[in-house]
Amino acid sequence: MTLRCAVLDDYQGAALALADWSPLDGRVEVRPVREHIADRERLVAELADCEIVVIMRERTRIDAELLERLPRLRLLVTTGMRNASVDLAAATARGVTVCGTASSSTPPVELTWALLLGLARNITTENRSLREGGPWQSTVGQDLHGRTLGLLGLGKIGTRVAQVAIAFGMEVLAWSEHLTPERAADAGVRLAPSKRDLLGGSDFVSVHLVLSERTRGLLGDEDLRAMRPHAYLINTSRAAIVDGPALLRALRENRIAGAGLDVFETEPLAPDDPLRSLSNVLATPHLGYVTEGNYRTFYAQAVEDIAAFLAGEPVRRLTPTA
């Protein structure tokens, strides 16, 4: 019997192009879905005939209610080895195997710097002016050399962001709840005494924390007020770490210079969302991990996960924590 596999959120049509799916020929019919399906009823209808579903990061919430409505589902493959939108306990209870893939931390590092540099040198404003025949030079850019970058989080991504900052001649502060002076020193940065000290002492603040109940809403209104008026906030991690309404107020009132954002509470971002039109926001549609190399890894290992499952020996299994 041929099994059916849906590959969700394949916006660019990359799934079939960037991996060899031939090991599944004759056993699995692969069906890419090129758009995001937010409506639950449409999603159920799309997946109702599928034994296998491949999901992209945390775009689709796979909870107990959805799993119950997909009785044919036997294997769920997520890109990455961590996905907070999947109820692993519910999947396990229903006999659904969940597997992941590797994911590189370099692409989000690079996008962080693309956003930071774009803001610092007013790239979009100047490029638009050049293309449209506007003024020849209308802005004065910010220097990076000698300025301070504040990192909220110093894991794999934060550490690599710090290395680039040091190469630019920046001073780097870092803070997270359990970060030690020794760990900060190993990365060549200084531990800020507190979150407020980091926010008040930085010209650029970049978020590199895992979203959890502890970090949700970590930056609220008072935290944003602690930032310098000329400072920029960069978030390529998770939108919910920053209080959305508080950030919108800070941007509208020009209490901070601007924000570089790659993550949003609701994705895709609504057409009328004010973040789309604020002049002091440089935003990208969650591209942090969207590179050819990462996608080749995602989909090649998705094929491996499916083949191993069919052989009765699943690999890279994700299971609920105790």
What can you see in these coordinates?
With 322 residues, the protein is an alpha/beta fold. The chain contains eleven helices and twelve strands. It has helices at 40-47, 64-68, 88-93, 106-120, 123-131, 156-167, 181-186, 195-200, 221-226, 244-252, 292-310, and strands at 3-7, 28-32, 52-55, 75-78, 97-99, 148-152, 171-175, 190-191, 204-207, 232-235, 258-261, 281-283. The strands form two sheets. The protein has a seven-stranded parallel β-sheet. The mean pLDDT is 96.
Overall, the morphology is globular
N- to C-terminal distance? 36 Å
Name the assembly state: single chain
Count the strands? 12
The assigned structural class equals alpha/beta
Rounded Rg: 22 Å
Residue fraction in strands: 5-15%
Please give the order of strands in the largest beta sheet: 8-7-6-9-10-11-12
Helix content: 25-40%
The whole-number mean of residue pLDDT values reads 96
Quickly count the helices: 11
Task: Describe the secondary-structure layout.
Elements lengths: L2 E5 L20 E5 L7 H8 L4 E4 L8 H5 L6 E4 L9 H6 L3 E3 L6 H15 L2 H9 L16 E5 L3 H12 L3 E5 L5 H6 L3 E2 L3 H6 L3 E4 L13 H6 L5 E4 L8 H9 L5 E4 L19 E3 L8 H19 L12
Overview features:
alpha/beta; single chain; seven-stranded parallel sheet; 322 residues; 11 helices; 12 strands; five-stranded parallel sheet
Question: Can I get a quick summary?
Answer:
This protein has eleven helices and twelve strands.
